[in-house]
Amino acid sequence: MKLIFEKGGPGRHLALLPDCDVPEVLPSKEWTRETAPHLPQVSETEISRHYTQLALRTRGVNGGFYPLGSCTMKYNPKVNEEAAALPGFQELHPLQPVHTVQGALKVLFQAGKLLDEITAMDQMTFQPAAGAHGEFTGLLLIKAWHLSRGDEGRRKIIVPDSAHGTNPASAAMCGMEVVSIPSAADGCVDLEALKAAMGPDVAGLMLTNPNTLGLFDRNILEITRIVHEAGGLCYYDGANLNAVMGIARPGDMGFDVVHLNLHKTFSTPHGGGGPGCGAVGCKEFLIPFLPGLIVKETADGSLQLLRPEHSIGDVKAFHGNFLVVVKALAYILTLGREGIPEAAKNAVLNANYMRHKLSDVYQMASPGLCMHEFVMDLEKLKHETGVTAMDVAKALLDYGIHPPTMYFPLIVHEALMAEPTETEDRETLDEAIEVFHKIYQQAHENPQSLKDSPHLTPIGRPDEVTAARKPVLRYRWETEQ
């Protein structure tokens, strides 16, 4: 497939804008280019076909099964997209007077209240743009709280070895020292290792529950108690909330601050570079440190924007990605008090169904029931046939299935982590299970064919090392060669 720069020719164009009906005002010459920018010159037909071809190559949840572990790639109702596209929402300006945007403020206010209820938090901010941004914001809250008490020595953040990779990265960005603790034999937090890590220099703990093995830590109340007794705070990574929303609340587990991926758990399509929303909720004692402006209701019922007294400042321009919150609110109101926990239960049901059906040939990384996702350990398969987790993942592409997450968590060396989500029907799961069984059989009968997979995709296996070390990030025109 040709790049857009390789199509068209001089003089070709398409008319997208009407004729200007106001006087033309151009910038002074000192601000203009000496040469025209290199832009594709294509007709409307060419550009339409180009993006249609790209769309046909795109692999997404609309095109097939997408069991990407720890990412909740579920189908999202299009009615939520329509709600966000309403002119009254879409055509707002962030600097409009407050009295002209009362409807938008009500969206933020109501969404915050509902998410507070789901998480057992006391206040939400929607400023962070994504999950890792939410982690960064939550840790800044923890840091600001300790500093406000003159507790400057608390600089350590405890992170389990099974944590999402963004957890230690976010802690490091906040200037904190990351302390990794091992998992116990059951795949959950090792309590003795946690106790040994405690001390007067611990600022807090970052934890995902259910964790990246898809396990709900039965010792969660003991874990948060240990951290609190040591003077630290507990941060909840909400990436896996889809498994427990409406059933178990982070605040009830003992967490002080939480981030939510609205673009994963609450309706906005995930992936493609955004937009997202890593909403952050916190307990009452952390509210004074929240970033940005918070929506508050006045005595006369109107809504106002107020900056918390000891705010850490802004972490993004204005109020975050507002339309993402519109979609999330539409999703929550549609599902309601009964639908939210039902979605979580179906996510857990689908994961356990698929896990059980595959456990006859694939070794699972942990015993017993899982939550929303499960991890297969292909170490035995690799030893017997030479076929790796990467080979299985590539083979799935030939069947129209997006691969599960590969080689994560790092504590499972040949890991494939699958999350089927609640929006997949039984027929789809059965088809995927059959494909996994075919690949397992193929690994024993013709392993080389799997090592050469995928066979049916536009691109086979790229040279990933060269792509990572010598990436080609822009098109070079002939005049630049």
Quick rundown:
The chain has helices spanning 44-57, 78-84, 87-90, 102-119, 131-148, 166-173, 191-197, 220-229, 250-253, 262-265, 322-358, 379-385, 389-397, 426-445, 447-451, 464-469, and strands at residues 123-125, 156-160, 177-181, 202-207, 233-237, 257-259, 280-282, 294-297, 303-306, 374-377, 405-406, 415-418. By secondary structure, the chain is α/β, with parallel strands linked by helices. The chain is globular and about 70 Å long.
Integer count of domains: 3
Please give the CATH class of the largest domain.
Alpha Beta
Number of strands: 12
The gyration radius over C-alpha positions equals 25 Å
- By CATH, the superfamily of the largest domain comes out as Type I PLP-dependent aspartate aminotransferase-like (Major domain)
Strand order of the largest sheet: 1-7-6-5-4-2-3
Which residues form runs of ≥5 with pLDDT under 50? none
Number of helices: 16
Distance between the termini: 21 Å
Would you list the SSEs in sequence order as H and E?
HHHHEHEHEHEHEHEHEEEHEHHEEHHH
Strand content: 5-15%
The chain-level structural class is: alpha/beta
Under CATH, the topology of the largest domain is which? Aspartate Aminotransferase, domain 2
CATH architecture of the largest domain: 3-Layer(aba) Sandwich
Structure description:
The chain has 481 residues and is α/β, with parallel strands linked by helices. The chain has three domains: 4-57, no CATH class; 79-334, Type I PLP-dependent aspartate aminotransferase-like (Major domain) (Aspartate Aminotransferase, domain 2); 342-467, Aspartate Aminotransferase, domain 1. The protein is built from 16 helices and twelve strands. The chain has helices at residues 44-57, 78-84, 87-90, 102-119, 131-148, 166-173, 191-197, 220-229, 250-253, 262-265, 322-358, 379-385, 389-397, 426-445, 447-451, 464-469, and strands at residues 123-125, 156-160, 177-181, 202-207, 233-237, 257-259, 280-282, 294-297, 303-306, 374-377, 405-406, 415-418. A seven-stranded mixed β-sheet has the order 1-7-6-5-4-2-3, sandwiched between helices. It has a three-stranded antiparallel β-sheet with strand order 10-12-11. A two-stranded antiparallel sheet has the order 8-9. Strand 11 (405-406) and strand 12 (415-418) form a beta hairpin. Helix 2 packs antiparallel against helix 11 (322-358), helix 5 crosses helix 6 (166-173) and helix 11 crosses helix 14. The longest helix is centred in the last third of the chain and has 37 residues, at 322-358.
